[in-house]
Design a protein that fits this description.
13 helices, about 0% strand, 2 domains, MetI-like, single chain, MetI-like fold, transport
């Protein structure tokens, strides 16, 4: 009886691609991104250079010249003239309140639209998207008139209410899209356990959306912190103004102290950078969790 021997398969050694040896296209993309980042840092370099430059050096050499002395009077002038600690408190109070309230309102709205399945859901979500696209210039006069009528003009509460509505419009649109694809099995399991709608929201939906909500909280804070037009119109008192409005007050009709303005911009930028650095990992985890889902 003949026995047929089957030759053993010869292992094929595939070349291991070294991740350090990137293709030409990847190196081109990396170079372009690096150049773009450096270009975006140029204005900040000019701001840092002119923040410590005396008015005499600025007048004689212009914004591109190197300062002849380490001038810090502009920092002290901005700190005292605009009462920076008070402006910092106003900005932090308004931005923090808007961030928290905007996330809560967005979550409640999106829960009703995405999971509650109300009638006309698509029309309502489209309405929120349309409201988010409206320019602030079109809203400023109605907001001003209503604030004057109800007695909230020149108060921090008026700005908090306005930006809570504006930010929650975007948050509702985003979260409604996310909750529209929420696993129905989790909701059905919670319903079988006897959980009500409120319990489902805080025990099932909220833990799963926590990374996304953290990202929204950070974005709402930064966006509100940088707002200028509405606080400029609604806050006319030095006791209620925010940092961007205080920074704009340094510029007159025909005269501007460029070193003091750059020093103020530098001081005003520090809190936002610190906030971003503190919550950088939270932002990265939220974006990564959203990508995995």
């Amino acid at each position: 009886m003949a026995v047929t021997l089957t030759p053993a398969p010869v292992p094929v050694h595939r070349p291991v691609r070294d991740r350090h040896h990137r293709g030409v296209s990847r190196w081109v993309v990396l170079v372009l991104v690096t150049v773009g980042a450096l270009v975006m840092l140029v204005p900040f370099a000019f701001m840092l250079l002119n923040a410590f430059k005396s008015p005499g050096d600025y007048s004689s050499g212009g914004p591109l010249s190197w300062p002849t002395e380490f001038y810090t009077k502009g920092l002290r002038t901005y700190w005292t003239e605009v009462n920076f600690p008070l402006k910092l408190w106003n900005s932090a109070l308004i931005a923090g309140s808007v961030a928290v309230l905007g996330v809560v309102v967005s979550l409640l709205n999106a829960y009703a639209l995405g999971i509650g399945r109300v009638r006309g859901r698509l029309w309502i979500v489209g309405l929120f998207l349309l409201a988010n696209m409206l320019p602030q210039e079109a809203l400023i006069y109605p907001l001003y008139y209503v604030a004057k009528e109800v007695g909230l003009y020149n108060t921090r509460l008026a700005v908090i209410i306005i930006f809570t509505v504006i930010q929650s419009a975007f948050g509702t649109y985003l979260l409604a899209s996310v909750l529209g694809t929420f696993p129905r099995s989790l909701l059905e399991a919670a319903a079988l356990d006897g959980a009500g709608k409120w319990t489902v929201l805080w025990r099932v939906v909220f833990p799963n959306l926590r990374p996304t909500l953290a990202v929204l909280l950070i974005f709402f804070f930064i966006w509100t912190w940088n707002e200028f037009l509405i606080p400029l119109v609604m806050l006319i008192d030095n006791q209620t103004q925010t940092i961007p409005v205080a920074l704009a007050s340094l510029q007159g009709d025909r005269l501007m102290d460029a070193p003091t303005t750059n020093a103020g911009a530098l001081i005003s930028l520090v809190p936002a950078i610190l906030f971003f650095l503190i919550f950088q990992r939270t932002l990265a985890r939220g974006i990564t969790a959203g990508a995995e889902k």
